[in-house]
Structures are given as C-alpha cells and as structure tokens.
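Weekly sync notes, structure subgroup
Attendees: PM, AL, DS (notes)

Item 1: joint prediction request from the bench team. They want all two components modeled as one assembly rather than separately. Inputs as received:
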Amino acid sequence: PASPGPAAALLQALGLREAPRGAPTLRPVPPVMWHLFRRRDPQEARVSPRRTPPGAALRPCHVEELGVAGNIVRHVLDRGASSRPPQPASAAGQCPEWTVVFDLSAVEAAERPSRARLELRFAAAGPAGGWELSVARAAEGAGPGPVLLRQAVPALGTPVRAELLGTAWARNASAPRSLRLSLALRPQVPATCARLAEASLLLVTLDPRLCHPLARPRR
Amino acid sequence: EAEPAVGSVPGGACRARRLYVSFREVGWHRWVIAPRGFLANYCQGQCALPAALSGSGGPPALNHAVLRALMHAAAPGAAGLPCCVPARLSPISVLFFDNSDNVVLRHYEDMVVDECGCR
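Output from the run, pasted for the record:
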C-alpha cells in the first residue's frame, strides 16, 4: 500500500488500491478486452479511422458494444479453476457441478455494476442435443443455494454466456468482495458430461464520482 | 517528447503544443497493456492582444481574458496577462492488469489537450 501523500492520491486517481506489481505471467489479454479497447481509444481511432465511423463520437462513460453505461470494464478469471478437481466426482448418472469464484475485491463500493456477463468455455463441443445450464449462489463451505438462473445451451463449441445482473446478482447491489457460483450443465438427452475449461466474468461498472448517474436506457 | 519552447518566454501565441507521454518513461509500462503512451499535448504561448481575442474557432469575443490583456497593455503593472490553458480536452482509455490479475479497461476523462485558450 502506498504511503499517504501524492503517491496514494495518484493511485486513487488511477482507481488502484496499491501500486501495481506488473504484468502477471501467464495471463493473456482476452480478445474481447482488446476489441473494447480499440473501439474506445480515440487516438487508436484517429490512427485507424476505419474502426470508428466519422462523427461517431463515443459517449463518455458508455460501453457501446455492450450497450450499457460504464467507464470501467474488468475481465475477471475464475479463482476456483486451480482448486477444481479435473472432473469432480458426480452422483451416478448425474453430471458434475462446478463452483467458480470471482475475486471482486478490486471493485470499489461506489461503483455501480451495469453488466455482469458470465462466460464459460468447455473442453469439447460435446454431442448435439442441447443442454441446460443452471446457476446458483454458493456460500463458502456450504452447498449450492437455490437455482437463480436456468438457460438453454444449444451447443458447447462456442463460449456459453449468461447475464447475471438481475438474476444471480441483484441489479442495484454493489459488487460483493467475491462472487461464488455453483454451475451445473445437464444434457437434454443422455450424453457424456461436459468438462468446464474456463470460466470468466466480464463486469462493467460505472463510477458515479467520475460519470453522471446511470443514464436510463433510451426508450 | 515535447515541442521545444522558444527561449524562456514561451514563443508565439497561445496554442496547443505537441507532448507525447510515454508510459515507459513514467514507469507504468509493466502493468499498462495499451496504449504504450499517448499524445497529451500542452498549452503554451502569449495571451497578449490580439492572441487573447482568438476564441475557439468562432468570432473574437469580448471576455474577461480580453479585458485583462487590454489592461495589461494599458497599465502593465496592474494585473498580469491571462493564462494559456486547455479549452477543450478529450479522454483516453487504458487497458491494464490490476493486482488481482484482472484485465481492466478504464476510461479517463480530460487526458488530451485538443485546444487551448486564454483565460
């Protein structure tokens, strides 16, 4: 933690709690974050105007691609991945459930979430026939809570996305310090179970101290 | 890199001058993914008449800065010249790693000087 004084003020202005250590080793930058950056960066847009149609001034504190207000976008990786057994034991005939954990301690209490998109990548496309994804909150050391979100999943070849805001995450609630979810994917027809390769959360927040309050979506 | 100012007194009328900020030079390059730096620019130049009259693109306007420049011309000791400051700024977005290994895209307002004016 920075000693009080100009360094702390600078870090706070940057939206950081302490001086950043530096680039983590094996953490590639997700393509979605590059895409959002290239669309937002006015100087990048000046360099390659083809990305931004002329006159399309980007609204401050708005993420055009995701259609929501926000001035901070975070791509958060599941913390539970490292501790997850390769294929958790499952009751006979039942496909395994997974617990994913997202560390949100970097999100400040003043920030208002405007989008929380869960993204799941599976190891193999799996047989056709469709699946059903269910999402529940999971307390530390306890079993899964009630199912908060059910979603049909036609295929596993592409990332499976689920919007959590308004279901697994109350719309006006500020970010919890960590978000633990229990996921289950059930095949519609008897099939081999899927294997979760990666879970991530794309979180958009708006800091009202730096932006106008959450603008109501236009009618 | 900055455009060299002429002599001690900033040369020429008040205007935006080129200033490229390299994140490597400020020691942020290890955690900032992109951009590597950006054109921040800066304001410098005289705000005496008639420079003080030049509004941002529109017709010259009588305002506080013009009166101060006029006063300075009539009685230099009365009050200093108006200041050459940013009149229009634009934001940048920075992509970086935070200490929780999240990849963060954050929008920072008022980071680039697009236009300067006498105030």
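Discussion: Chain B touches chain A through 27 residues (CB under 8 Å).
Action: AL to compare against the crosslinking data before next sync.
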